Amino acid sequence: MACVVVTAVVGPLLAAPASTGEAINVVATRLDNNQIKDGNSQGMWPEEAGFTGSIVAGMSTAFEHTCEEDWRDSAELGGDYIVADGNATGVFYGDEAFALAELSRISSAPNQWQQPLADFYGDVRNSEGGTSGYISYFETGPEPSTAVFYLAYHAVASDYVEAVDKQLWRDSVSDFLARVDDNVADYPVLALGVAIWSLAETGELDDTLVDPCGTGQPYWNDIHLSDLPGILAGHQRMEEPHSGCFYWRFDHTDGAGGGGPDAYGYTEDCIFGALGLAAAVQNAPNLNYDTAIVAMKESLVNSIADDGTVYGHLWLNSPQYYVYAGEMLQALGYVVVPGDMDLDDSVNGFDLAILADNWLSSCDGTCCWCDGSDIDNSGRVNFVDFAYFANNWLTEGSGITWSGTGGSDGSTSSASYEVNVTETSLRPAPSWVREPVR
Amino acid sequence: MFEKTADKVKRLRARTFTAVILLMVVGLLAMSGLKAAVSDVDDGEYGWFINPFTLEIMQASQSSQASQVSSGGNSSPRSPTIEINTSARPWIRIPYRPSLRSPYRPPL
Question: What ipTM goes with this model?
Answer without folding.
Answer: 0.79
